[in-house]
Structure prediction request, 493 residues.
Amino acid sequence: MDDLLQTPLYETHLRIGARMVPFAGYSMPVQYPMGVMKEHLHCRAAAGLFDVSHMGQVILSGASWEAVATAFERLVPMDVLGLEDGRQRYGFFTNDTGGIEDDLMFARRGDDLFVVVNAACKAADVARLRAVLEPEVTVTELTDRALIAVQGPSAEAVLAGLDPTAAGMRFMDVRDLTLGGAAVWASRSGYTGEDGFEISVANDEAEGLVETLLALDAVEPIGLGARDSLRLEAGLCLYGHDIDASTTPVEGALNWAIQKVRRAGGDRAGGFPGAEVILAQLSDGASRKRVGLLPEGRAPMREGVALFDAAEDGSQVGQITSGGFGPSVGAPVAMGYVDSDHSAIGTTLWGEVRGKRLPLSVAKLPFVAANFKR
Amino acid sequence: MKFTEEHEWLRDEDGEMVVGITIHAAEQLGDVVFVELPEEGTTVSKDDEVVVIESVKAASDILAPVDGEITEVNSALAENPGMVNDDPQGEAWFFKMKVSDPSQMDEFMTEAAYLKFIG
Prediction:
């Protein structure tokens, strides 16, 4: 385990009793003494604090905002150029077959673009950015900054208690805040379906900020275990599981993330890897689709469970890509890919668990209503 | 009470053995959300997978500690799996069994030996 990387909050995790596990090359907290279930419920009731410093933070800069945005649009099917200063969007890198190489958040900070990518993909992402964008755009990976998230209905009160201007931010706004003496970059976003903030802070100020936040009654630390059940209930994809290099955005039900201007007939239609495949699927649909799935019984159905169209015999029509128990739903929840003709809400399918076929139904995502401040 | 290396406990009750998992095992599993119990009257062999237990983290099996017959299951667990975390060495027993060969229990540990085993 010596070769595992540590975030700037590693010592803090140990001190507050985290159980650490290897994750994407880092030693990360999977849970704290409260336990996964209570951490999950606490985050939906008050505020949870997450260390997500393992994720990659990258700044793209160039001669002008237009130069940076136009260049970045060569890698993602999003409207980057139209992003207003101080706003953020969800996006993904695509490949030549229309698959998703990584999903990400990108924010406009003046003339720069601030991109946050998944830990497991960050080396490849930075290499891709450099290969395609340099020298016209300068690609700087920020290894001197930690990233934390404060999520939940009390998140606004928690941050506004430290910097009142936090309360003025809307969902997907980005702004510089001063939190307990630390100058941070905050965005009003997250990965839980709750209102909340993601905060980029200098490595040497991260521990102090986290101590300040954890001292508040509303705030409890949340590990990777509850992070996973929170995002699953919120219907959010986990890269490498629910989406990957072999799934297209249309198959992944992420059409909403591709703005009109990049679609057929738009002013800047196409021009990203796999555009031909993705634009065709946007107009004609795909043969399979990511859907929500609700097991009818109490048995959780996890990643890898095969889905059939009949209780006996029949054919396999899909597979679960994420599944487990949803503490807020109070029942098992899952997501997976099914053939499009079995993707209608309410369709009954059968998942094979330990040799038995158990019923589940195709369900609307998210499983819990999003609680964003629009 | 006797303990196994599989983190189960056995308690003698009127000649039958009541079987559950240890406090240590319950802590390791995390919050239990699903328990699938065997049919009463099932004949089992040592190390058969007799109970499926799912926590928020993963699925695990509970193995029959010895050969015998399942005489009773704790059906309250199916309705309220969280009992396994609340009282693993008490209320949250899994099943009772009639033991075919009591000598299979000779190797089981005392509580002191088990606590040493888990370090």
